[in-house]
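Consider this pair:
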Amino acid sequence: MNETSIFTLSMFCYLAAFALNSASLSLERQKLHTYGRAFNWLGITAAVIALGMRWHSAGHPPLSNMYESLVTLSTLIVLVGQIFTASQPLPVLEAGASVGAVLMIGVASVFSSDIRPLIPALQSYWLHLHVSLAFVGEACFAVAFILSYLFCLRRILGDASGRTDFSDSREKLACYSVVVGLPVVFIGGMALLARHLSSHPMYVDRWHNIVFWVIIPSILAVIAVAVMAWLFRGALGRGAERWLPDNIILDNLIYRAIALGYPLFTVGGLIFGMVWANKAWGRYWGWDPKETWALITFLVYSIYLHVRLARGWSGTWTACLSVAGFIVTMFTLFGVNFLISSLHSYAGS
């Protein structure tokens, strides 16, 4: 099997894991969750094998362009999700990580998987340190994002009686904005990306993959969830406690994920990035768009940690900060490469 076939196998393993974890929540069958974890580990193993094959063929780690970045990051997201649920099983988080990985692999299929020689700026051991640590940090941010979405959903569903405890209308609006608005923003963003790529000669034959493998499945999934929520609206709140843990547990898990990802992203994305920039371009910092948005990402998560640790904030507002941080993280990965001229534009190829 070649590398692409193994990545496809990995994607189907993630889909199987999603189906099994979802079924375990609905049917309350622990064995199905065990099988779901096994399929996630199988998908991770297959992806690591494929990444190793690519590393061996190219002679450098698979971190140099958008295709490699997405398949690597998708693997790390599922891996971090599995690690976070090793001692405290949380099938809904594992299912969310699987979905995130599948969507990233779907977007990756748009970009060329051809192995190309590294441009001179990337021919450095700093590629290993800078990008790999930043990606592990971003994978932790992705897990925090999934948990934050689940936190807001849990607040809307309420307790066992279906009663919510929003302190004010702004908090309620924030939760609904996250739960309802994020799918709309994601689908709209993917549509804009597809439109942008459709006018680019390099992607004219592949941009439609986003439509068939990302946008349409996402729309169908949103419709299915909305219909199920409407049909079972009376029982959904009462059943939330069996598949979503208490808000305090979710809030602590969000903090743990960000507390782990923050130093990794800071050291890998900013500090090692500045050292590499000095070696490659002769300056530590030049306000390049990629550098600027990486700094903004760092500042958003710095605010999260500050208000949580120094101000004692928790709950809805810190979950919203986590969501905002991941949106900025994804814009740093995607938006800068395609919308803004940058010294890092080679990463969008």
